[in-house]
Design a protein that fits this description.
alpha+beta, 5-stranded antiparallel beta sheet, 25% strand, membrane, DUF3592 domain-containing protein, transmembrane helix
């Protein structure tokens, strides 16, 4: 996911800079109305920077959870396709886990990041996975798969 956001950020930012510079140059040298050519460039530039911002925000949350998150064991409830995402006609798989928050007694369902391979053979006989959660907000979490699942080649 980080790689996709980084690539999109680079592409949109470069296109935005090119269109904005070209529109601004044409407006100064040829015709002031050609500055309208720069408006799509500004939109692309804002989109590209927002992709970089989203990537940085996600990394910041992951870092905070690694340093300050509470480690809990959540029961594995299954492996499902994440149909919200589709790349080349394929959907990634996610590991779903659940745990009860002792503070409020509610059940929370956690989903791993999208995996492009079947994780079930690597889970073996495991019934739980470690999850790093924000003690104040169980909606901020990260399922820990490092050391359990291999990295994709």
């Amino acid at each position: 996911m980080y790689r996709v956001l980084r690539i999109l950020g680079i592409v949109f930012t470069v296109m935005g800079l090119l269109f904005t510079a070209l529109g601004g140059t044409l407006a100064l040298l040829v015709e002031p109305m050609l500055f309208l050519f720069a408006l799509p460039g500004l939109i692309f530039l804002v989109l590209g920077l927002s992709f970089f911002g989203a990537n940085a925000h996600t990394r910041k949350i992951r870092q905070w959870l690694a340093e300050n998150g509470r480690r809990i064991e959540a029961d594995i409830i299954g492996v499902q396709y994440d149909t919200r995402v589709r790349v080349n006609g394929r959907c990634p798989l996610v590991i779903q886990c659940q745990a009860v928050n002792p503070a409020d007694g509610k059940v929370y369902v956690f989903e791993s990041e999208g995996l492009w391979f079947d994780p079930e053979p690597f889970l073996g006989e495991r019934t739980t996975l470690p999850v790093l959660v924000d003690p104040d907000d169980y909606h901020r979490y990260q399922i820990v798969t490092e050391g359990i699942l291999p990295e994709r080649g």
